[in-house]
């Protein structure tokens, strides 16, 4: 498995695909593979998130086309809903990205959420590090679009682009607690629709009230199907990357990723079916089952 490492640095897509599958399925030796990686620290990770139907896949597609004109090498990680039967990616590789499948400068991989909350999969951090090791210029992560719970992306992406449509205007107040908190850039896609200008104006007012000293969150209008507004979006991504290179921000993101990995490792010995069987036995034998007593006895805190 360690023989894959030098192949990654040569952008061997087959080796990268195998390495990701090994990590996803926790094949023996995958931890040693991860420890052997040489991971660049300056590869921008761009999260594309937002509610279903906002046009995230189309936007990712045209962003890729634009950056390919600049001879960039791009990796796209599309996180899809899981099949309820085999936990595989339900949609597979995105149909809208099909024009880039045979491009030697583009790597596309679909990952299944496998029940993970937050719009990501549970091995996303390791997968991103594998992709980073393959020396891409940009890494795009497109999440499944599960609405306001999709905040995990903020702990992973260097720049988070939240994609909305004009019809979201009626829900703008409820967005404050979720997507409003994680956006580095707002994109109002399908901006040729009615009420787009009013929605953009209201969104800019809300964004202005949350302005930070280093970065004023832009609200951009795009029509992805016509490639309108894409150049401006790329410019804003580049501008945010310059801000994002500050040490405090990088350390904060790295610490979040470390926290998630530590949390997962410490939970590794917890088996949900086994836990359910234990609780079932206790409930059947003790009508006045107390969950907290059960946890204290069987899973004491450290």
How would you describe what is shown here?
The protein has 302 residues and is an alpha/beta fold. 40% of the residues lie in helices and 12% in strands. It is built from 11 helices and 7 strands. A 7-stranded parallel β-sheet has the order 3-2-4-1-5-6-7, with helices on both faces. The two termini are 35 Å apart. About 4% of the residues have low confidence.
User: What is the radius of gyration computed over CA atoms, rounded to a whole number of angstroms?
Assistant: 21 Å
Mean pLDDT rating: 82
Structural class: alpha/beta
* Helix/strand order, N-terminal first: HHHEHEEHEEHEHEHHHH
**Beta-strand content bin:** 5-15%
Strand arrangement, major sheet: 3-2-4-1-5-6-7
Low-confidence stretches: 82-93
Q: Roughly what percent helix?
A: 40-55%
Q: How many extended strands?
A: 7
What's the number of helices?
11
Major sheet summary line: 7 strands, parallel
Form type: globular
Keywords:
7-stranded parallel beta sheet; alpha/beta; 12% strand; 302 residues
């Amino acid at each position: 498995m360690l023989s894959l490492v030098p192949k990654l640095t040569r952008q061997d897509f087959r080796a990268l695909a195998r390495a990701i599958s090994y990590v996803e399925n926790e094949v023996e030796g995958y931890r040693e593979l991860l420890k052997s990686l040489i991971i660049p620290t300056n590869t921008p990770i761009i999260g594309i998130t937002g509610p279903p139907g906002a046009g995230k896949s189309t936007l990712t597609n045209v962003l890729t086309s634009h950056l390919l004109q600049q001879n960039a090498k791009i990796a796209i990680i599309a996180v899809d809903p899981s099949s309820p039967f085999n936990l595989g990616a339900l949609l597979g590789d995105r149909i809208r990205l099909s024009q880039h499948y045979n491009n030697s400068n583009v790597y596309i991989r679909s990952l299944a959420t496998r029940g993970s909350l937050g719009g990501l999969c549970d091995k996303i951090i390791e997968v991103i590090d594998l992709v980073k090791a393959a020396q891409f210029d940009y890494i795009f992560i497109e999440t499944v679009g599960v609405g306001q719970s999709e905040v995990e992306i903020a702990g992973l992406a260097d720049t988070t682009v939240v994609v909305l449509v004009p019809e979201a205007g009626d829900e703008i107040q409820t967005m404050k607690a979720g997507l409003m908190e994680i956006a580095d850039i707002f994109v109002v896609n399908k901006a040729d629709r009615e009420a787009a200008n009013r929605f953009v104006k209201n969104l800019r007012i809300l964004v202005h009230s949350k302005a930070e000293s280093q970065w004023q969150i832009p609200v951009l209008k795009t029509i992805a199907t016509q490639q309108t507004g894409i150049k401006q979006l790329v410019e804003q991504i580049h501008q945010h990357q310059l801000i994002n290179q500050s040490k405090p921000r990088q350390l904060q993101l790295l610490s979040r990723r470390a926290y998630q990995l530590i949390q997962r490792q410490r939970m590794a010995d917890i088996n949900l079916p086994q836990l359910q069987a234990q609780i079932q036995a206790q409930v059947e034998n003790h009508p006045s089952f107390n969950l907290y007593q059960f946890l204290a006895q069987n899973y004491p805190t450290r």
